[in-house]
């Protein structure tokens, strides 16, 4: 009798766990804000190293991948971030977890993600992030921020598929000897940028989690 009731609960718990995006700070999302020109020295992104990694989840597992950075620059004045923008090459989308196990499924997944149900890269080849604000930030004791080494709170307009929302997230930014490195990990809700395909939780095992994990890794120099 005990197993009759406990097994469904275990199954439900496992299913719920699989549906969750990786634990990370959830980006605060609001309407688009005005963008000001950055001041100070321009640091241009090294597009051979900088990239945006992603993790998408579903009840049956997850997929990991990346986008390449098309171009970008950040402005620094007196060691403070004052502005900048990053352009992401959406056509560079690549799944990483299937590359050594199932290249046929990898191609199918990449085609679906690049198609009109998701990023529609033929129509919208570039996504853009423009900084609208940057302030010093240190997670305090009891603060629920998960990125404990963050030293900035970055705010900016993220445009995907011609839809612009303002997001804010913690980041770790270091500047030394003319080199700037930046790391950020956060989750965003893809449906806010018009990607609602299979986001309805009533679809159960066909569900694709609306929360997507983003890992931004940047290297830039003067």
UniProtKB/TrEMBL annotation:
<feature type="domain" description="Lipid/polyisoprenoid-binding YceI-like">
    <location>
        <begin position="42"/>
        <end position="221"/>
    </location>
</feature>
<feature type="signal peptide">
    <location>
        <begin position="1"/>
        <end position="23"/>
    </location>
</feature>
<protein>
    <recommendedName>
        <fullName>Lipid/polyisoprenoid-binding YceI-like domain-containing protein</fullName>
    </recommendedName>
</protein>
<dbReference type="InterPro" id="IPR036761">
    <property type="entry name" value="TTHA0802/YceI-like_sf"/>
</dbReference>
<dbReference type="Pfam" id="PF04264">
    <property type="entry name" value="YceI"/>
</dbReference>
<dbReference type="InterPro" id="IPR007372">
    <property type="entry name" value="Lipid/polyisoprenoid-bd_YceI"/>
</dbReference>
<keyword id="KW-0732">Signal</keyword>
